[in-house]
Amino acid sequence: MNELLAPPDQISDRFGQILKLTRPAGKDCWSFVAPGKALREGRIWLGGDWLNLEVPLKSAKKDADCLAEMLSFNAELRGRAKFTLRDKPWRAVLAAEIPIDGSLDGAGEMLEHTIAGFQQAADWLRSCNRTKMAADFHERDAEGTSLANLVSETGWSFTERPDGRVAVPLEVPFAFSQAIVERLPGGRVRLSVGLEDVRPSNLMSQNAVNLFLLSACGIVRFARCAGKTDGSGLEWEVVFDTPPDAEQFKHALASLSVGWGLTAREARALQEEVTARRYLAFQEW
C-alpha cells in the first residue's frame, strides 16, 4: 500500500472534513451520512490505493424503465458517482472509486465532486427531476493545456484530430477500440468509448443489456457505463470535473479498457431475445 496511506487516521481526518463520518465500520472503513433523504447511510473504505464509497438507495423500482433511467442519468452525475447494481438479492446502490496514489488534496477534490453527484442522484430519486450542474461551479479555464499535451504525459499513443479531440487506442486484446478525449463546458475533460451496435430493439433485450451493464459498473473501477446524452446508444466514460493529471488519466484509460473489454461482445450478444431471456432467468431477475 502507498506510504501515504500508512496512518488511517490521516484518511479519516482529511475526508472527515468533507463527509459526515458517523462511526468506524471496521478496519479502514467508516460510515457516513449520505446527502438526501432518498439514500441510506453510506460506507467508505480503503482497498489498496483506492478509496471506495457505496450508498444504498432507500427504494428503487425493479423494472426495465428504472434500469434505463439509471444508465441514462449516470452521464450527468458529477465526480466518480455512478448507479450500479449488487446482485442476489438485487439492489441498486450509488458507488464511486477514487484513486489515492497521489496527494490527499487531489483525492479530496474528487471526493467533493462525487458527493455532489450523490446529491444529484438523491434529488432525482426524490422528485424525478434531474439536477443540472451549475454553469458557474467550475472556475477553471476551459482551455488551458491542450488535450494532446495532457495525453502525451501518460505514455499512451494517441492521434490528435482536427477538431481538437484526441483518440487513444485502448488496451483490448480481441478488438480495436479507441477512447475519445474531449473538453466539456466549464473546463471538464471527458474520456469515452462507445458500445457500438448495442441498441436492443425489444424489451427483453433492453432489460438484459441494462442489467448487465449496471452490474458491470460495480466491477469496473473509476469508469461508469452511461447512456449517450444524445440518446444514440451506450458508452463507457470517465468525466473529470477539473483537468486531470497524468496518473488520473492513466487510471481512466485503463478503466475504459477493462470496461469495454468486459462488456462489448456480451452486450451485443444480449440483443438476441432468446439469449436475453436465458440471462435474465439465470440472474433471477
Describe the structure.
The protein has helices at 8-15, 64-74, 104-127, 147-152, 203-217, 246-269, 273-282; strands at 20-26, 29-33, 42-47, 50-56, 82-86, 91-99, 159-160, 166-169, 178-183, 189-194, 224-227, 234-240. By secondary structure, the chain is an alpha+beta fold. Strand 8 and strand 9 form a beta hairpin.
List descriptors.
6-stranded antiparallel β-sheet; 285 residues; alpha+beta; disordered N terminus; 7 helices; globular
Rounded average pLDDT: 86
Counting helices, strands and paired strands, the structural category is alpha+beta
- Residue ranges: pLDDT <50 for 5 or more in a row? 1-7, 132-142
- Structurally, the number of domains stands at 1
Topology:
Blueprint: H1 8-15, E1 20-26, E2 29-33, E3 42-47, E4 50-56, H2 64-74, E5 82-86, E6 91-99, H3 104-127, H4 147-152, E7 159-160, E8 166-169, E9 178-183, E10 189-194, H5 203-217, E11 224-227, E12 234-240, H6 246-269, H7 273-282
Helix pairs in contact: 2-5, 5-6, 5-7
Overview in brief:
With 285 residues, this protein is an alpha+beta fold. 34% of the residues lie in helices and 24% in strands.
